[in-house]
Structure formats: structure tokens, C-alpha cells
């Protein structure tokens, strides 16, 4: 569509609308049926909410205040009605509570079979000085390690242990990892 060359719409007279002027506006009727239906729906909604809430109308509330009188207890010496004493607290009829309090449970825990002793190797070096440096860092963590030469004194292994269980070895390995000593391996070695 060419907006530059299009025709201008005809100018309207004051008070005239696009749909035919004042006469068309006067001919529009208000849909009274829809307005009446909307008012009825709102009234039904309000009534339903009051019914659900259990509320009373304002007129009923005023009447109930007038008819209700506060109930006061009368002393036992007066001739008026006497309030019944409170019923006794019912006794528990359950016996399992007492049985469970005195019950002891016995559990058979099988003995754990211990495998071969575990050793943890934290390093293997060609120079003994490097192995001594790692051993000193481990000693600063409160753990004791040994240096074992292997291959005719060409390699030096830094080893911790022996440990009875792998759990003990894992605990010390985590302690070394917190101190930034990584690379320790747990093996089923027997020296």
C-alpha cells in the first residue's frame, strides 16, 4: 500500500461520528437484559458466599444478641440448676506403650572378615631427597610414613600403614587431601 499517494479521508462535521453521525449514536440501545443478568449473578454470588461462611444477615445478628443472655454459674447453695462435674480422664487402654518401654532388641552383627593389611602409597621418586620432602609434609599432618627403596635403590616409595581396614586408610587419605597432598593410593600389599 502506498501511504504517500493515498487519498485523505473526507473531513467530518463537528458532532458527527464515523458510523453515521448523531442519529446512529441515539439509536444504540442499552442491553438491559445483560445488565439485569449481571446484577442477579452478583447478588447470587454474595448470597452464596454468606451461606458458605455461615454468616447471618444483619437483622438476624441484632435479634440473636437480644435473645441470647450470658450464662452464669450459680453457687451450689442456690436453688438454680447445678452444673455437672467434669468427667474423669479416661484411662489408656493401650498396653503397647508399656511393652515397648521395657523391650530390648537383640541384633546379631556378624564379625567382619578382615582381608590382607592395607598400605597407602603417597609417592614414588627417583631421588631420595624428594621422598624425604614428602615424608616431612606427611609428618607435619601427624602421620607416620616410611620410605622403601625398590629396584636396587633406583626408586623410593613413600608408604603409610599397614592398616587393618580400608576405612582406616581412607580416613588418613582424606586428612592428607585436606593438606593438599594428593595422589595417595590404597593397596593390598604385604611388605
Automatic annotation (TrEMBL):
InterPro entries: Cell_div_SPOR-domain (IPR052521), SPOR-like_dom (IPR007730), SPOR-like_sf (IPR036680). Keywords: Membrane, Transmembrane, Transmembrane helix. Residues 8-21 have a biased composition (Basic residues). Residues 112-189 form the SPOR domain. The keyword Membrane applies. Residues 1-24, 57-88 are annotated as: Disordered. The keyword Transmembrane applies. The chain crosses the membrane at residues 32-53. Pfam families: SPOR (PF05036). It comes from the Bacteria. Residues 61-80 have a biased composition (Polar residues). GO terms for molecular function: peptidoglycan binding. PANTHER family: CELL DIVISION PROTEIN DEDD-RELATED, CELL DIVISION PROTEIN FTSN. This is SPOR domain-containing protein. It comes from Pseudidiomarina terrestris.
Amino acid at each position: 500500500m502506498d501511504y504517500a499517494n493515498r487519498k485523505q479521508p473526507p473531513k467530518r462535521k463537528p458532532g458527527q461520528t464515523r458510523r453515521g453521525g448523531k442519529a446512529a449514536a441515539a439509536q444504540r440501545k442499552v442491553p438491559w437484559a445483560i445488565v439485569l443478568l449481571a446484577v442477579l449473578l452478583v447478588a447470587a454470588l454474595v448470597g452464596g458466599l454468606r451461606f458458605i461462611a455461615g454468616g447471618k444477615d444483619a437483622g438476624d445478628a441484632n435479634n440473636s444478641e437480644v435473645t441470647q443472655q450470658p450464662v452464669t454459674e450459680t453457687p451450689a447453695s442456690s436453688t438454680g440448676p447445678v452444673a455437672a462435674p467434669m468427667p474423669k480422664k479416661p484411662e489408656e487402654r493401650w498396653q503397647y506403650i508399656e511393652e515397648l518401654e521395657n523391650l530390648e532388641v537383640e541384633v546379631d552383627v556378624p564379625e567382619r572378615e578382615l582381608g590382607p593389611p592395607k598400605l597407602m602409597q603417597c609417592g614414588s621418586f627417583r631421588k631420595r631427597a624428594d621422598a624425604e620432602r614428602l615424608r616431612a609434609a606427611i609428618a607435619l599432618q601427624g602421620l607416620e610414613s616410611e620410605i622403601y627403596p625398590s629396584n636396587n635403590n633406583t626408586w623410593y616409595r613413600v608408604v603409610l600403614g599397614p592398616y587393618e581396614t580400608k576405612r582406616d586408610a581412607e580416613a588418613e587419605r582424606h586428612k592428607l587431601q585436606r593438606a593438599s597432598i594428593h595422589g595417595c593410593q590404597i593397596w593390598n600389599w604385604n611388605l
